[in-house]
Amino acid sequence: MEIELAISAILLLALTFLASVDMAFGQLSDIGLRRLATETEEHPNARYAPFLSEILENRARFSMTLSAAIQIQLVIFSVLITYISLQLFARNGLALFISLASGLILAGIFRQLIPRFLSLRNPEGKLLKLLPVLRPFYRALRFVAEPWHRSFDRLRQQDEIEEAHDEEEDDDGDDIEALIDVGEAEGIIEEEERELIQSAIEFGDTTVAEVMTPRTEIVALPKIATVREARNVIIESRHSRLPVYRDQIDNVEGIIYVRDLLPSLSMGKADSPIGPFIRPVYFVPETKPVAKLLREMQKAHAYLAMVVDEYGGVAGLVTVEDILEEIVGEIEDEDISGEEPEEIVPASNGAYEVLGGTEIGKIERLFDMEIEADDFTTIAGLVIAQ
Length: 386
Prior knowledge:
The protein is α/β, with parallel strands linked by helices. The chain has 14 helices and nine strands. The protein folds into three domains: 2-157, no CATH class; 203-340, Roll (CBS-domain), CATH 3.10.580; 341-386, Uridine Diphospho-n-acetylenolpyruvylglucosamine Reductase, domain 3. The strands form three sheets. A four-stranded mixed sheet has the order 1-7-6-5.
């Protein structure tokens, strides 16, 4: 028991010492520390001036070491007080509570009140007096804490490298846009070429959700459909590939190709089911970058992919054509007769009539404006959100 009490007393003294140093340093700015290091050269403790300069070079590490040592001492002291209290008053609940509370109050006094009283008045003078004890004390603490410091330094360097890389990417993007502006002003780059380059730059930040055909516009077939029914839907929709679902659109089982149905039609088997012609389908999350998806679809030789949301339901579908249109603009199919309705039409009084399916990005580019569109990508979504 005497040993535990002696260790507790030593811990309290060490705690008071480190807390006093910590508070004294907290009162001094870097300028104050430099001035103190200069004044120390004319002080009886002049040999400690290099030690002060060393602390100043890496003040954050010094503060971290002191804070860690203080916290460890508090933990050890709390464990010792708990052990001593249990040994003395295990059978007396009130006495045990008073003993533990007294220990905590004592720790608070030696951690806060006494160091504050000692250090807040004339912190420079207190530091000069504490330097002879502080230097060996800090050397020992730093030796023990060196592995942790190295780990923190590696993490910090990694964060700095990542931040520098991100800033470099941002700077590269700004530089490219500046070159595009200069090229257009000099007549080297035409407006269409500028739009193509701009689309290629923005392509890397585009997600599948921004280019997909939404769920409400998907043309699909039930698994129980016949070849004849599939032919009619294909003719009406003018799509050469269609998703096939079981019971509901969230249960997509695959896709069918027009060319796979032609033999059945030519052999008079139009009433046969489409089940044997179903091919596997590629599923992708709506948050996937389109640049990455394009590479994956090229490797998988997939033209169409089903897009799923965070809950596993079908959010839409995306094709290679949808992705390429994000770079080169709208690709018109040669078999589509007639003219598509214009998405943005000028009206009277300076107003515009806009189709609900018009993308927000097109409005932003046309009118040089920015619309906050976190949860929607079309004008219809904007109207509903309002």
